[in-house]
């Protein structure tokens, strides 16, 4: 008889992890606190409840990174994708699902599996022994959150994300922007040029502030901020406090010289900082925001140098419990300080239903292999699942780590193809072709064991 795998949280990630492990012959217990203990966003006691939109986003596995993630999960007998496909609603190129039928069907499939039991209870402490996966999501209960913080240190488990928009590096106009760290600080040339700077004159700054003040914003959900939110102001709130506030905050122009126009002193500067080791993504420093997505794109494109920017992700601030995975997890998703515990889902610092389910799939397979006495290495970083796990356990900057959704900026580049917008279609096809081959290899290697 194999050891039991315990999974805390029966959301998108926990359900997928349980399915994968049970299909590999491992007995599983899911510990799910709902409906006894509620969250502010979940409405039912069902497993895999979709708390907000009913979309799994693009289903295009040739031209879209999240579509590729769908494809990879389907190839791996993913429960979440199978049931999403069965309850699909018409939505053009996107995969939208009937949310109630979807969660009910996941619950039914899990409870009907002979190797899976579901205990409706809240787990409040970190388990000392046994094989565990923590997949408690963005709304991890307070007591468990505190127990995790005690283990990891308070600065390595966040209760809010404060996401600044992230731009694809090759869409920044470098005839306007220039690379320089403030006051040329840094030991190496690379450090002295770690930031990209977009200059604004007074008129451009005033237009930008007007656009920020007028933009459509979202509100926090009721109960979302209770007892937690402690600062990290959205840029539009800073602008509301005074038109000059941003110019003395994240947009201050000091210590910088425009290499394109050294004689011109900028009135304000927007800085972008490298967001991944590959150097393909840059985040706009200090630009966390509650503006709606359409408004963000419109406002950020008024920044000189970003007129043609493409965004790998837009900004946001949400209640979101997540680990500083680059420092805390190994590449097998285990907590370095307690390797009997894995983490999966949104709590690892990925963002979104699909990404969370994919991290559940991976953790379930890795835990099952370990219980069966094998080691399962992560998939290649050129696959969508591999790109995500590589990012959160090593590729991302640990100091500024914020939740990430899957995007081609996380993929190692394919060399010899045209960059920028014009080469995009061929480049994306090359990424997805390469990923499909490597993902199939990864699955095939497990099948022969
Ligand atoms: C308000 C809100 C809106 C969102 N909107 C979207 C959206 O529109 N699209 C999107 O893609 N993503 C959205 N997300 C992110 C979304 O939550 C994740 O994409 C996805 O649900 C994460 O899956 P998960 O399995 O990691 O967490 P969840 O699906 O949240 O599952 C975690 C489970 O763990 C349980 N749990 C927590 N603590 C304990 C404990 N101590 N003991 C036992 N059980 C516990 C919870 O009850 C829950 O069932 C939203 C998140 C929030 C908070």
From TrEMBL:
Matches recorded under Gene3D superfamilies: FAD/NAD(P)-binding domain (3.50.50.60)
The protein's Enzyme Commission number: 2.1.1.74
Stored PROSITE patterns: GIDA_2 (PS01281)
Entry's localization field: Cytoplasm
Example GO BP: tRNA methylation
Gene Ontology CC: cytosol
Binding site for FAD: 9-14
UniProt cofactor(s): FAD
Catalytic activity: uridine(54) in tRNA + (6R)-5,10-methylene-5,6,7,8-tetrahydrofolate + NADH + H(+) = 5-methyluridine(54) in tRNA + (6S)-5,6,7,8-tetrahydrofolate + NAD(+); uridine(54) in tRNA + (6R)-5,10-methylene-5,6,7,8-tetrahydrofolate + NADPH + H(+) = 5-methyluridine(54) in tRNA + (6S)-5,6,7,8-tetrahydrofolate + NADP(+)
Keywords: Cytoplasm, FAD, Flavoprotein, Methyltransferase, NAD, NADP, Transferase, tRNA processing
Leading EC class: transferase
Record-stated family: Belongs to the MnmG family. TrmFO subfamily.
Name recorded for this polypeptide: Methylenetetrahydrofolate--tRNA-(uracil-5-)-methyltransferase TrmFO
Organism: Rhodalgimonas zhirmunskyi
Lineage: Bacteria, Pseudomonadati, Pseudomonadota, Alphaproteobacteria, Rhodobacterales
Gene: trmFO
């Amino acid at each position: 008889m194999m050891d039991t795998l315990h999974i805390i949280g029966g959301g998108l990630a926990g359900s997928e992890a349980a399915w994968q492990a049970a299909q590999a012959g491992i007995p599983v217990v899911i510990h799910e606190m709902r409906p006894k203990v509620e969250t502010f966003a979940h409405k039912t006691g069902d497993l895999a409840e979709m708390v907000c939109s009913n979309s799994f986003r693009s289903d295009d596995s040739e031209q879209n990174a999240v579509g590729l993630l769908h494809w990879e999960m389907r190839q791996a007998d993913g429960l979440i994708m199978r049931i999403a496909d069965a309850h699909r609603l018409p939505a053009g190129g996107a995969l939208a699902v009937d949310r109630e039928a979807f969660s009910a069907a996941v619950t039914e499939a899990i409870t009907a599996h002979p190797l899976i039991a579901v205990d409706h209870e809240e787990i409040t402490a970190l388990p000392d022994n046994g094989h565990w996966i923590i997949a408690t999501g963005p709304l991890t209960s307070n007591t468990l959150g505190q127990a995790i913080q005690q283990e990891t240190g308070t600065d390595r488990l966040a209760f809010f994300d404060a996401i600044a928009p992230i731009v694809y590096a090759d869409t920044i106009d470098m005839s306007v922007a220039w690379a320089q760290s403030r006051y040329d600080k840094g030991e190496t040339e690379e450090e002295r040029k770690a930031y990209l700077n977009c200059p604004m004159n007074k008129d451009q700054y005033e237009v930008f502030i007007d656009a920020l003040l007028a933009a459509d914003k979202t509100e926090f959900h009721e109960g979302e901020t209770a007892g937690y939110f402690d600062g990290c102001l959205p840029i539009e709130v800073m602008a509301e406090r005074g038109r000059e506030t941003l110019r003395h905050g994240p947009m201050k122009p000091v210590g910088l010289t425009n290499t394109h126009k050294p004689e011109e002193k900028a009135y304000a500067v927007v800085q972008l900082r490298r967001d991944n080791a590959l150097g393909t993504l840059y985040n706009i420093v200090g630009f966390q925001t509650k503006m709606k997505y359409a408004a963000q794109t419109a406002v950020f494109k008024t920044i000189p140098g970003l007129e043609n920017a493409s965004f790998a992700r837009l900004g946001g601030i949400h209640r979101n419990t997540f680990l500083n995975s680059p420092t805390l997890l190994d590449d097998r998703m285990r907590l370095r300080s307690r390797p009997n515990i894995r983490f999966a889902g949104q709590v690892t610092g990925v963002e979104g239903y699909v990404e969370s389910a994919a991290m559940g799939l991976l953790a379930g397979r890795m835990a099952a292999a370990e219980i069966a006495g094998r080691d399962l290495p992560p998939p290649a970083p050129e696959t969508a699942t591999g790109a995500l796990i590589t990012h959160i356990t090593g590729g991302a900057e640990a100091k500024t780590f914020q939740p990430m959704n899957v995007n081609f900026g996380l993929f190692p580049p394919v060399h010899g193809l045209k960059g920028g917008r014009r080469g995009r279609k061929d480049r994306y096809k090359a990424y997805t072709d390469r990923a499909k081959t490597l993902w199939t290899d990864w699955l095939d290697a497990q099948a022969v064991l």
